[in-house]
Design goal:
By secondary structure, the protein is an alpha/beta fold. It has one domain: TIM Barrel, CATH 3.20.20.190. The chain has twelve helices and eleven strands. It has an eight-stranded parallel β-barrel, surrounded by four helices. A two-stranded antiparallel ribbon has the order 4-5. The radius of gyration is 18 Å and the shape is globular.
Length: 270
C-alpha cells in the first residue's frame, strides 16, 4: 500500500459502487479499471465457514434478505442477487451475487491492493490463512483497534507474527489517546487509521509518525470522517479538505469519491 514517491493512496470504499453493487466483483473490477491504489471490502463468515463480502449485520440493505451472513449456508448466500449501488429498496436487483472472498483474491491478484475490514476480529487469523493459501498475503492488509495492552498482545501474536501488512485504528481524540499513540510507535504498523477532533491536532503528530515510518490514513466518507472533512465538503473545496489532510501528513484517504480525489491529486502534483 505504501509506494515510494506516491504522495497519497486513493482507497475506493467498497469498490466503485456508483454503477455496481458495493462489495461486488463488478465494483472491485471498476476500482482496478479506474487505476486506484486500494479497494476496501468487508468480510464475514457463513454458517458453514466460507468467507463472503458484506458490510451490514444483516443482508437486508443489499439483498432484501432479512438474515445475517453468519446464519446462512454458502449455497444460500451465493444464490442472493445484490441490489445496485449501496442497496436499499430504491435500487433494483442486479445479476451480481454476494461475493466469495476467494473469488475476490482471484480477481485482484497482482492487480490492486485490498484493505480487508474483517467484521469479527476473531476471524482475522482464518482470513490470513486464506490469503496465504491464495498467495496474496502481501497484497492485502488487516485492520484492528489498538487501544490498550490487550489489543497490542492480540495483534502481535495473531497478525504481526504472520508478517502481513497491518493497519492500527488510532484515536487522538479520546481519553487514553497518549497510550494508543505510544502503542502504535512500539508496534510500528504499516499505517495508522487516525481519528482526531481538529486538523491542528492531527498536524501536531505529523513529524513523529513520519520519523517512525508509519503512514497516516484518514476517512473522508460522509458517515465516517473527522472535523467535518467529508467527501461532500471536498467536492465543493478539495483544497480545504483533501489538501489540508495532505499538508497535515496524511498519505492514504478512503473515499466514496475516488475519481474526484484522483483528479485532485494529479492537479496538485502539477
Amino acid at each position: 500500500m505504501s509506494a515510494p514517491g506516491r504522495d497519497c493512496a486513493v482507497i475506493a470504499h467498497r469498490g466503485i459502487w456508483r454503477d455496481a453493487p458495493e462489495n461486488s466483483l463488478l465494483a472491485i473490477e471498476a476500482a482496478i479499471a479506474g487505476g486506484y491504489d486500494v479497494v476496501e471490502i468487508d468480510v464475514r463468515r457463513s454458517a458453514d465457514g466460507e468467507l463472503f463480502l458484506c458490510h451490514n449485520d444483516t443482508l437486508v440493505r443489499m439483498t432484501g434478505c432479512n438474515a445475517a451472513v453468519e446464519s446462512l449456508q454458502a449455497s444460500e448466500l451465493t444464490a442472493l442477487p445484490l441490489r445496485n449501488r449501496d442497496g436499499g429498496a430504491e435500487h433494483s436487483l442486479t445479476d451480481q451475487k454476494l461475493s466469495r472472498l476467494s473469488d475476490v483474491f482471484d480477481l485482484t491478484r497482482d492487480r490492486i491492493f485490498i484493505h480487508l475490514d474483517v467484521k469479527d476480529r476473531a476471524l482475522i487469523p482464518e482470513v490470513i490463512a486464506a490469503a496465504q493459501a491464495a498467495s496474496v498475503d502481501q497484497q492485502v492488509d488487516f485492520w484492528s483497534a489498538l487501544r490498550d495492552g490487550d489489543d497490542f498482545a492480540w495483534i502481535s501474536s495473531n497478525v504481526m507474527a504472520h508478517g502481513v501488512p497491518f493497519i492500527a485504528k488510532t484515536r487522538l481524540n479520546v481519553p487514553g489517546a497518549e497510550l494508543q499513540t505510544e502503542l502504535a510507535f512500539h508496534l510500528k504498523p504499516l499505517i495508522c487509521e487516525i481519528y482526531f477532533d481538529s486538523i491542528e491536532q492531527l498536524a501536531s503528530h505529523k513529524h513523529r509518525f513520519a520519523e517512525a515510518g508509519i503512514h497516516l490514513w484518514v476517512n473522508t466518507l460522509n458517515d465516517v470522517s473527522c472535523a467535518g472533512l467529508t467527501d461532500s465538503a471536498a467536492l465543493k473545496d478539495p483544497d480545504a479538505v483533501w489538501g489540508r489532510l495532505l499538508d497535515a501528513g496524511v498519505s492514504a484517504i478512503q473515499t466514496d469519491e475516488a475519481a474526484a480525489l484522483k483528479t485532485y491529486l494529479a492537479a496538485r502534483r502539477r
